[in-house]
Amino acid sequence: MRKLLLILLILVLVGAGIFFTLPSLLDRQMNGVATPAPYPASDKAEKLHQTLFVADLHDDALLWQRNLLERHGYGHSDLPRLLEGRVGLQVFSTVTKTPRGINYERNGADSDNITLLAMAQRWPRATWDSLLQRALYQADKLKQAAAASDGQLVLIKSRGELDRYLEDWRRDPRRVAAILATEGLHPIEGKLENVDRLYDAGFRIAGLTHFFDNEVGGSAHGLEKGGLTPLGRQVIARLEEKRMLVDLAHASKPLIDDVLAVATRPVLVSHTGVAGTCPGPRNLTDDHLRRIAAGGGVIGIGYWDAAVCETNVGAIVRAIRYAVDKVGVAHVALGSDFNGTIRAPFDTTGLAQITEGLQRAGFGDADIAAIMGGNVRDLLLANLPD
Asked: What kind and span of H or E run contains 210?
């Protein structure tokens, strides 16, 4: 009996060891790069890149158990690598639920990968069965990282805070501003008042949907792919009242149409492709590009294959060029989707390669500065709460 109990104990311990190390293994496998660092660029590109304020509209690093303040040899970003890549502002999104299989075409809302991931990463018990608590926990992770960063990672919640940060950044660019976003509004759990909970926790950008339809509206990857629900219309009004930016990444086409019909403030698309260079269920049509830009919005071009159809800098630049030709330089930005279970051409230390690609595509220095970060900076300065 003792031998049997010992064997069972060993099996339990081995199983637990595998379970708790699985997130790190998944992180290494699912957040890969086409080529390892370093990522050289031309002298001309490097010289310009070192003068730029770079901003990226989407990073899912908070989902994983990596310490944001420590450099890692896997995944796409952390504070040391953001600084090396000259990133001045990073939007960090909170992922709270993904369907089993994450089908790009069609998913129900009846399965969830994040529950086991939360358990395996030893998240608080409250996060195991509450999407709101998962969002709040990831927000707290970012706050703790900022507090421990000696001023190098600065959480921004207002226009005044961003103004002060930019003054500090101009004197010393060895710092990164952080903006909190949620990937989908299923964390409000069907309750309008939970928009206030997210705001109070520091969220300033709200993606409406992710890989499935929710109580707010339809996903480009959902079953119904519908527009705004009655709750969704209330949510848009509340977001605008609180000066939280609406993010249409992953939104169904009817949802985009409905939001653009009622929005009185600019919207953004944090990470996307354009159908003109890469057809796909969530890549923006020319009509949506024009209508988003007409309202003062900004479109973040992603780096992964389903967004730009190839895993290389040339494909990213082609999508940027296409969008700029359709709506103008002032409405196009970077939206990597780093750490969002994608394979990217590089990690965040390789951003000078985009600068070089834009130079080769004929963009001047001022236009490159706008695309690489200036447009995001200006959008936030104009639209964050006072």
From this structure: none
Give helix 286-294 / helix 313-327 axis angle, nearest 10°. Answer: 60
The residue among 99, 107, 59 whose CA lies nearest residue 220 is: 107
- Report how far residue 386's alpha carbon sits from residue 384's, in angstroms, rounded to the nearest whole number: 6
The pLDDT of residue 6: 41
Quick one: how far is CA 82 from the chain centroid?
14
Does 102 score more than 70 pLDDT?
yes
Q: How far apart are CA 212 and CA 298, in angstroms?
A: 24
**Rounded CA separation 174/168 (Å):** 10
The C-alpha angle with vertex 325 and arms to 322 and 329, in degrees rounded to 5, equals 105
DSSP 8-state assignment for residue 220: T
- Token pair in block for residue 244: 């939280």
Asked if residues 33 and 344 have their Cβ atoms less than 8 Å apart, the reply is yes
In tens, the pLDDT along 198-218 reads 999 999 999 999 999 999 999
Helix (H) or strand (E) holding 330: none
Element of type H or E holding 46: helix 43-49
- Which amino acid is it at 246? V
Cβ–Cβ under 8 Å, residues 349 and 36: no
Cα 342 to Cα 324: distance, rounded to the nearest angstrom = 25
Provide the 8-state DSSP code for 125: G
Paired residues of 247 in beta bridges: 207, 268
Is residue 247 exposed (0-12), middle (13-18) or buried (19+ Cβ within 10 Å)? buried
| Cα→Cα distances 267→1, 236, 262, 355, Å | 66, 11, 11, 25
For residue 29, with 0-12 CB atoms within 10 Å meaning exposed, 13-18 middle and 19 or more buried, which class applies?
exposed
Q: What is the pLDDT of residues 153-201, one digit of tens each?
A: 999 999 999 999 999 999 999 999 999 999 999 999 999 999 999 999 9
d(CA 302, CA 116): 28
For the chain, first and last CA: distance in Å? 69
Task: Name the helix (H) or strand (E) containing 269.
Answer: strand 268-272
- At 19, the pLDDT band (50, 70, 90 cuts) reads low
pLDDT digits (tens, 9 = 90+) for 24-54: 899 999 999 999 999 999 999 999 999 999 9
Place of tokens 């992770």: 141
d(CA 293, CA 268): 9
